Amino acid sequence: MTDTSTSPISVWFLNGPNANLYGLDANKNYGTDSFPVLQSRCEQKAAALQVQLRFLQSNHEGQLIDWIQEARGVADGIVINAAGLTYTSIPILDALLSFPGKIIEAHVSNIWKREPFRHHSYISKAAHGVIAGLGGDGYELAIEAVARLVRKNPQAA
Fold this sequence. Notes:
Blueprint: E1 9-15, H1 35-48, E2 51-57, H2 61-71, E3 77-81, H3 90-97, E4 102-107, E5 129-132, H4 135-152
Parallel strand pairs: 1-2, 1-3, 3-4, 4-5
Helix pairs in contact: 1-4, 2-3
């Protein structure tokens, strides 16, 4: 992890299955911004906040777990949208619980206005906070939130 008093903080933004299809959804649950546009917005927000951002996406649960484990000792914070794995993955929860830094759970859609199975998140148990339903703005706010948490209490990150 970085010394937040003298250098930018490091945040890994992890996206789960099908997030790469954002903007292509006929139902518009995930807004109209494509995944590359969301990534660009997040990179711009991170730069403005002096946050070193690693923005990743995988359709594979094991890859997300590997990234969470790799972030230990390297990243100050994680923003995660585990997508469909939010509601099913205890292994992702276990990996997040082993991460010593700050964690924000983010969702483009409002998961509580959707199907009932989406109302329970395993990820939330490990998260310091949840941002949902604000589209791409929520992604940017999640980066700001994790940066604020790390800067407020860098020893706990």
